[in-house]
Task: structure prediction
Amino acid sequence: MHINADKGRVRKPYILMENGKSKFTPELREKLKTREIDFNYLVRRGIIEYLDAEEEENVEVAIDEAHINKSTTHMEVDPAIMFGLTVNSSVYPEFNNAGRHPVAWNFMKQSQGLYSTNFNDRYDARSYILFYPQLPLIDSITYRTLGLERHPQGQNMVVALSTYYGYNMKDAVVFNKAAVDRGLGRSAFFRSYADEEMRYPGGQQDHFTLPPPTAEGYRGEHVYSRLGEDGIIEPEMDVKEGDALVGKISPPRFLEEQTSFGIGEEKVRDNSVELRSGEQGTVDRVMLSETIGATRIAKVRIRSIKIPEIGDKFASRQSQKGVISMIVNQEDMPYTKDGIVPDMLLNPIGLPNRMTYGHMLEMLGAKAGSLKGKKFDGTPFSNNGAALVDEFGSILKEYGFDEFGDEEFYDGRTGRKFKGKIFTGVVYYQRLWHMVSLKLQVRSRGPVQILTRQPTEGKPRKGGLKFGEMEREALIGYGASLLLKERMLDQSDKASVWICRDCGDIGYYDYIKNVAVCPLCGGSSLEEVEISYAFKLLIDELKSMHILPRVRMKSD
Result:
């Protein structure tokens, strides 16, 4: 017998069986509905028992009463209980490929919306607030139970399954410019910056103030032009990349040298907080406070408005992701005979390809719901697909639409009617925080690493995009040798070094004697060559391990 008494062990409730029948009788169900008894009553009376992952190995569980047989030991409390909160917040997941569920969970977690009702008083590292969040027309029991309607995370969009002159191939989607101008998918992005007046040994301390021009690392008057007299920026000031937000001076890293008069000159270095590279916005809020150690801290929150643009990512609750490839003027978009212009054009190949038929059901159901003025329930395993299609179809027919959601469309460019009908409906789409404006990275020249002299890595450090081994192989395969040299030498860590023709060691140039010298053999027959600085570094590291590599050069 194994008894696990681990803290925090995950357990799941199951209904017990007795003589091939569920112990949870219709009488108990009625009492539970009228609140005569509660869930804990059922657990205490042995009608429901909690099992952990190890116990689940030795039981036979029926998904509902229709699947009970002689060997059944337990039954699910509800078929949807096998899913977590995220998937249960989705709709019709049982009609989708199981492999798409984890993808849908991730998209839900990345969606922009109203993440907190007190967002205005918070200084999160980064946060996103959707301007006009809406409630979905189809939701689930879990969605309602959790009260997620207080934290909406998407918008209902009119979606047509149609191509558009090749602009929405694969995962690309085409947006209606008029809808975007009306506020579709618009959001605010907040980023917080924080700094503290640190204390150092010897009684030295940082100070929030305007750095003086004599400070070490002073960045120029224009950088501090938006700071107030106390060295902290004012709210509602427009800022761009490189502008100082909090002016701060710190003591020097090393002890000051004594001057000729024996008086130590007090030097300070500029340690101000500046806006990250590639970003711009408006100062939303500024906060001054104190830490437990009675040192002052300053927090500045920057706000920027993010309007959907080419490259921004959207996804439905059915894991159908898409990146905007084109934002088309409304007059150029296809339109129905009633004059309805879709907000989004989605490639029809994406649905059968990924087997997300729940997406099509949602399109049909939300369309019927928007016409009828009611919401539908999409809780997992609580619906029959065929019955749903019939129910939605009858509502659509009642309002003069095709029962399967197809509509006649006209080309906005030519005005001609399309030969085939296009499936159109309403889908709850989420705007994800993957936005091109926060990922855009450009560099011509910039800082380099001290050790390897190669460009720095990452957007915050003004770095370049990595050109790796696989890219190198691609250029070698094409025989583009000059491009390869430019990428991996000229644009990277090209260094001119002197190589001794006699011994093959690296030498140096003596500017006093005006001659190149080899420190190993003392010879003066040296040749200046261009190599990668990382290669020189490798030679130096090998020397530190008592290995002397020699560079041989071809004769002219």
